[in-house]
Structure formats: C-alpha cells, structure tokens
Amino acid sequence: FSVANASGRPIHKGKICLSGTACNLSGFEGGDRRLGDFFTVNFDHKGAIYIASGDTILKNPLGGPNPVGHPIFIKQSEGSALLKRPDSIRKTRCLYPLPSC
User: Fold this and answer.
1) Number of domains present in the structure of the chain
2) pLDDT digits over 51-77, tens only?
3) pTM here?
4) Residue 21, Cα to own-chain centre: how many angstroms?
5) Is residue 51 part of a domain?
6) Which of 6, 9, 26, 83 is in the most buried spot, having the most CB atoms within 10 Å?
7) What is the DSSP code string of 43-84?
8) CB count, 10 Å around CB of 88?
C-alpha cells in the first residue's frame, strides 16, 4: 500500500462543509460541498484505479472564485494494479432487440 499524488496538483483547497444543504447559506468561508459530494474511486478489469471528482481550484472566466466544481477524471498510468490477475471481460451485447425504423 502506498499513497500517490494522482492529479499532480491540488484539486481543492480549504474546508469541506458537512452541514448538508445548509452549506450553501454560509458561502465559502465555512467550507463547501463541491469536492465531497462527487468523489468516486473504482477500478477497471485490469485493476487500474480510476478517480472521478470535482476540481474546485479552477477560477471563473473573470479570474474570481468559481461557484461550481469542474469534473476531473484520473486514470492510473503506472505502479502496481489493484488486482493480481485481471478479470476476464465479456463482449458487450444488447439485452433487448433494437427497434427498426
């Protein structure tokens, strides 16, 4: 087990608000939810890690703070895989007949 800097830079600075929808009432001073609500980690059939989150560091077009987090997707490109042996994959198929037009 080791820790890696997956994004190469911070994707959030400051506090993360844990007060549910009341977070929006206090502005950014008390923290915000833009990172915490959308942080997901998973792996593919080969064991490579994927991270999906929100990037709250990006500024708005005028240079000020941005009220929304921008999507960021990160895929492991080096290091040990999570799985010792890759899972087999099956061919994708439709579960229902396709409609004809």
Assistant:
1) 1
2) 999 898 888 888 887 878 889 999 999
3) 0.69
4) 21
5) yes
6) 6
7) E-TT--EEEEEEE--PPPTTSS--SSPEEEEEE--SS--S-S
8) 6
